[in-house]
Amino acid sequence: MAIDDDVIGVHLTSGPQDWQIIQQDPHGQGTLALEGEWRSEVPGVVEARLVSESTGMPVTHALDWQRATMRANTTWQLTLTHIPAGGLY
Predict the structure, then answer these.
(1) pLDDT along the chain (89 residues), means of 10
(2) Residue 5: its pLDDT value, please?
(3) Residue 8: which residues within 8 A CB-CB, separation 6 or more?
(4) What local confidence, expressed as pLDDT, does residue 46 receive?
(5) Burial 21-55 (b: 16+ CB within 10 A, else e)
(6) Strand positions, DSSP E, 1-89
(7) 3-state secondary structure of 61
(8) How large is the greatest C-alpha to C-alpha distance in the chain, in angstroms?
(9) Phi and psi torsions of 79, nearest 5°
(10) What residues have CB less than 8 Å from 77, skipping those under 6 apart?
């Protein structure tokens, strides 16, 4: 899904649905792929993190702010890995 050229900000175009359960691998961990588009009047980067719903704190240190891969065509991609079982995130 493309965004309008005049809309500023970070937009998620591919990721989990509300209340989606992330499947675990054989080691009991999940992976979450995120993609989107961004528009800004100044250069910047997109970052994301996974937090606990009850505390707002990162689920683990490794899942705190991570920088997305920024593409020249104003899109970005980020995969969060080693997501522990347990949620709600």
Answers:
(1) 72 93 93 94 91 95 96 92 92
(2) 64
(3) 39, 40, 41
(4) 95
(5) eeeeeeeeebebebbbbbeeeeeeebebebeeeee
(6) 9-14, 29-39, 47-48, 66-67, 69-70, 75-84
(7) helix
(8) 44
(9) -120, 120
(10) 33, 34, 35, 68, 69, 71
- Cα distances from 68 to residues 46, 50, 86, in angstroms, run 6, 13, 25
Do 86 and 54 contact (CB within 8 A), yes or no? no
The pLDDT value given to residue 4: 64
Tokens of 15: 């990721």
Of 84, 87, 86, whose CA–CA distance to 29 is shortest? 84
Q: What pLDDT does residue 83 have?
A: 96
